[in-house]
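STRUCTURE:
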């Protein structure tokens, strides 16, 4: 029987709730709530899991309880058979996409995202669907997404941005786009990622 695995990347510690780096995790939590999934429960000491169905298709929602860079170690406990990989959907934050936007991709590189890279190593492939949720401020501070020198941000600057909480106006943008993200997930499950990409990208 076909089963989908939807993985929300983020950091598990409560101090990271509402931060930019947890956008993927937040979207999966919203998906579970909107579609009446049961409460998440800790399984195998490595992830919060909620099991449900979308149009009779079984779906596992997985929130790694290891920190972002070790996300792959967490999901290896739940996704093993190679044949299931085409039914894996990973949601992650993306600094290259502005808040209020998202993009669906398939079989693409990590783009430097440590959590995605960890998942790629764990699964041994890039051939899975990703929903890249934009977190870049529309009007970035001078030292937010660009360094003072005008080039790429330093590691410290990037880390500061990723662990910062969304501003109220940004939360409103995120809430607005979340409706489309959740719709896209249902389309991926019921009609395939190509259909979702044609509708939402």
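SEQUENCE:
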């Amino acid at each position: 029987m076909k089963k989908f695995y939807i993985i929300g990347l983020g950091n598990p510690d409560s101090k990271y709730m509402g931060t930019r780096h947890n956008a993927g995790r937040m979207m999966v939590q919203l998906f579970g709530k909107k579609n009446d999934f049961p409460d998440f429960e800790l399984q195998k000491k490595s992830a919060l899991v909620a099991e449900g169905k979308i149009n009779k298709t079984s779906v596992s929602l997985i929130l790694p309880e290891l920190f972002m860079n070790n996300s792959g170690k967490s999901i290896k406990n739940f996704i093993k058979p190679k044949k299931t990989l085409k039914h894996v959907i990973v949601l992650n934050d993306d600094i290259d996409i502005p808040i209020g936007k998202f993009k669906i991709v398939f079989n693409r590189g990590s783009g430097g995202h440590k959590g995605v890279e960890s998942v790629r190593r764990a699964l041994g492939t890039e051939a899975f669907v990703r929903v890249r949720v934009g977190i870049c401020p529309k009007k970035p501070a001078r030292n937010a997404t660009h360094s003072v020198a005008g080039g790429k941000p330093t590691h410290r600057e990037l880390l500061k941005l990723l662990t910062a909480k969304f501003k109220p106006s940004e939360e409103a943008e995120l809430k607005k786009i979340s409706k489309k993200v959740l719709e896209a997930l249902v389309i991926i499950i019921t009609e395939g990622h190509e259909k979702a990409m044609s509708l939402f990208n």
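REMARK: Confidence is low (pLDDT under 50) at residues 142-150.
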